[in-house]
Predict the structure.
Amino acid sequence: MTAPALPCPDCARPRYYQPTTGRVACATPWCAALGIETPLWQALTVSGQAEPTEPGLPRPRHHGLPIPWITPRSRGHVYWKALDAQRLSDAHNRWLCQVCGLPLPEQAWVLVTPDGDVIQAALHHDCLTSALEYCPHLTSGASQATPRHITRDQLTTDGQPLNQSAPSDPHFLHQWQTTP
């Protein structure tokens, strides 16, 4: 799928968007950037085409569905399968809700896989309810995640407590785990 108005910085030809990876890449055979992938959120931001999404409730809607704060959008198009890694990094580092972008209370909700991995970031209870109602990944049961009410002290990354870890970075997001 062609990424609308996201030309390659090297050859200026359209880049292609891969919904399965949330990345864009040039497919022009003679271009030096051929096949070099860029996260969609970054390509939208650099080109000035990322639609600002303010934190808060109620969330903006697209075709009746609430748009999570961490979901990139541009020119009326919502990239449901992509994540804005900068916003997700902010949610990690500043204890913000991934759905509404607002600060979380000391205890918040996370969705935990059977392996103990947290899906993305924490949520308010009402935002969790909305995610469980509308997100196809969650409603299909594919994630097999269960909600858990926790504090930041009950989360780790790479075996380290969050407060002892380096901040999450948009190009190297932390994978949170729950403590037993």
Q: What stands out?
A: The chain has four helices and 13 strands. Residues 37 and 58 are 34 Å apart (CA to CA). The chain has a mean pLDDT of 92.
